Amino acid sequence: MSGLPGGKRTVVGTCHCKAVAFEVDLIDGFENIRRCNCSLCSRKGAIMAGATLDRLRVIRGADVLTLYQWNTKIAKHWFCSVCGIYTHHQRRSVPTEYGFNLACIEGIDLDAIDEIGRSNGAAQSLVGDTA
Q: Which end of the chain has fewer CB atoms surrounding its CB within 10 Å, N or C?
């Protein structure tokens, strides 16, 4: 149990300046709530949830999203180019899913999350120069 409301519904998320907005269709509440310990995620500190690619849609500001990729360039991390907030990413470990920043979802109380899983992104192989 996550401490967050469950059920089937659509939620809206925005970056800080609201230039970017996205919708996520939830089937049974927020799924796969986690933090990741890879070198990027550990620095951004976000609590993420997951959704399949067909359940997350950018509804405003696709033109101001900045894509960041590193290492294998499989994962795709998007940030608002105006305010810098990480909104979502396409996962390297499961490329058919997005992870999204729960702090971007309207009305979420991050302190209400009972259990936050851990993804061991640091254990995934690095290829060549990662700088």
A: C
Structure letter (DSSP) for residue 64: G
Amino acid occupying residue 105: I
Angle of CA points 63, 25, 17, to nearest 5°? 35
Closest by alpha carbon to 79, among 31, 40, 29?
40
* Contact predicate 22/106, CB 8 Å: no
126: CB partners within 8 A, 6+ apart = 71
Q: Hunting for tokens 């060549």 — which residue is that?
A: 128
Q: CA dihedral in degrees (15, 16, 17, 22; nearest 10)?
A: 20
Give the helix ranges, DSSP H, for the chain: 41-44
The answer to whether 92 touches 85, Cβ cutoff 8 Å, is: no
- Provide mean pLDDT across the span 119-130: 66
- Measure the CA angle with vertex 69, ends 50 and 17; round to 5°: 65
- pLDDT tier at 1 (50, 70, 90 boundaries)? very low
